[in-house]
Amino acid sequence: ATTEIYTLSLHDALPIFEAKAFGICPGIEIAEALTKMLKQLKTEEQPCTVVFEKGIYYISAEKLPVRKMYVTNTVGDNEWRPGEAPHENRAGFLLEGLRQVTLEGNGAEFILLGQATNIALLNCTDVVIRNLRITSFQPDMHELTVVKTGPFYADFQLDAESQYTKTQKGYCFIGEGYCTEFLDSRTTAHWIGKINGKDLGNLKRTGHPFCSAVRMREQKDHLFRIYDPAALRFKKGDRYELFDVRRKYNGIFIDQCQHIRLDGIEQNFNYGLALVAQNSDTLTFSNLRFAPRKEGPRLMASVADFIQICMCRGQVTIRDSIFEGAGDDCLNAHGIHFKIVKKEGNTITVRFMHPQSHGFNPLRIGDRITYVDPDTLLCSGESEILSSEQIDEYQILLHLNGPAKAECGAVIEDIDAAPDLTFEGNRLDRIITRGLLLTIRGRVRIRNNQFIHTTMNNILISDDAKSWYESGCVRDVVIEKNEFLACPEHTVSIKPENKRHAGAVHSGIVIRNNTILTPSYQIKSADRVAIYKNNNHRAAKMKITNSSVSEQKG
Questions:
Q1: Could you tell me whether strands 99-113 and 459-461 are parallel, antiparallel, or unpaired per DSSP bridges?
Q2: Dihedral sign from CA coordinates of 358, 361, 362, 363
């Protein structure tokens, strides 16, 4: 993160507080003092700025307050383990109900000891956080590098930061808040990150490297040999990243906020999503660095997506940032399809359908909803929400100005919970799935980005109402002046998950003036798609199904 102190703007009017006045000083543990300071800021009635001294600060997770947080696309109801309280969370920086507050990090580094969300912004307005770095000490992610192979064995070097102990069952990774067996989920894990030793940008999902091992022993400190009849599949230099995929804690969580700006923030590890924003309005993210420490022991920085935008509004801008080493998409921007489960006159009950997304109410009075056929994904009719009441974690009661074509079994899309999105000037590398996954009907501009390595599509435009229930259609997307490099799948895939084609789901998509190493397009159930003036290093591959596409070569 940059260490520049910004010139104070009108937003940063007096008073200016120094964090050290609250006992928050470099070199010491600050969890309780930080929590107390952020709580006190809630009482400020005028704009204020808090300035941290440059240095290293320590935050002990066990000293942080516990809060219940329902975070979209995270640990599902069936994933909680015995003894865990569902949706209980804690955050190093807990910002709740703040108005017109700026946190100036001045290049400070915050090291999280234990497991927690780094930053939570709940019901905040006009908040700026800038110029700070957050990382985790000895997190539960471990890198194994193949250093030697034989016909029936392979030797793995464990990264120097990871600590372990020998138990009756074998070996366990140990750290603050966890003790994880080396062989945990070895027969079921399919999400393990594998990095090609000859191309360190090439990250893909694979099974556990010890899935078929018959024996394991410690050769010397941090060096292990496994005996495996399938050992020839290992290649010297390849790296395997082991982690818990449940997304219990996240990097930055933004909920029910408006006018939030993050600038110059660096995160080096996250137990889930690096940044997730839900039910919020007008967000600006710039000069982010979500990537492993340059001097660090691992090449992954997040268990899941780097950024997830769900049911947000206004303008969302992501620019001039570096994203390296994601355990899922770099960016997933979407709404939610709620299923209609009950209808009585002008009142309908709708339900969250995916176990990883529920517990909050983004459907607001005055919003327009449209009715969507789950099979065709086509919209029919609109209604305005007159009242919106959350009945329980999964169900919301809506009173409408008229039910239009509401039918039980159909789904709804909130037309107004769909922001305009600008994604520009960013660098993406070592992304285990897609670069961008988009299902929003706002104005989308993707320009001047560098897509270096994605394992799946560089850009996927989806939409579904039967699996993840992530809505909706796109209407105005421009993809221009980007550089698309290593991608084994499609440069752009327009692939709504409709079961039956009854008309175009997506429309208004322009792909122009890009530099593309291996151009490839998959286009399904789309109208008004234009592809032209791209600098293709090879002839483009096209797979078009039930779509209207205009293409101009060169």
A1: unpaired
A2: positive
Q: Could you tell me the end-to-end alpha-carbon distance of the chain, in angstroms, rounded to an integer? A: 39
Residue 321 neighbours by CB distance under 10 Å: 26
Report helix, strand or coil for 31.
helix
Tell me the three state secondary structure of residue 345: coil
AA letter at 29: E
- What are the b/e assignments for 426-447, b being 16+ CB within 10 Å? bbbbbbbbbbbbbbbbbbbbbb
3-state class (DSSP) for residue 233: helix
Token pair in block for residue 118: 């780094």
Taking alpha carbons only, the member of 301, 361, 356 closest to residue 326 is: 301
Helices (H), 28-124: 31-41
Q: How many C-beta neighbours within 10 Å does residue 311 have? A: 25
In the prediction, which pLDDT does 5 show?
Answer: 38
Q: Which two tokens stand for residue 541?
A: 């591959």
Predicted pLDDT at 552: 74
DSSP state of 268: -
Measured on CA atoms in the order 265, 268, 269, 274, is the torsion positive or negative?
positive
pTM of this structure: 0.95
- Residue 304: which residues within 8 A CB-CB, separation 6 or more? 73, 245, 247, 270, 272, 273, 274, 326, 327, 328
Helices (H) and strands (E) in the chain, counts: 1, 50
CA distance 196 to 181: 25
> Do 434 and 461 touch, CB atoms closer than 8 A?
no
- Residue 543 has what DSSP assignment? E
pLDDT along the chain (554 residues), means of 10: 38 77 97 97 93 98 95 91 91 97 98 97 98 96 97 97 94 95 94 96 96 96 97 96 92 98 97 97 98 92 97 98 98 98 95 96 98 96 96 97 86 97 98 98 98 97 97 97 96 98 98 98 98 95 96 69
Which residue, among 264, 287, 11, has the nearest Cα to 130 in the 3D structure?
A: 264
Determine the 3-state secondary structure of 520 from DSSP: strand
Distances 442 to 87, 246, 315, 470 between C-alpha atoms, Å: 30, 30, 9, 15
SS3 content of the chain, % helix, strand, coil (to 5): 5, 50, 45
Q: How far apart are the C-alpha atoms of 132 and 105, rounded to whole Å?
A: 5
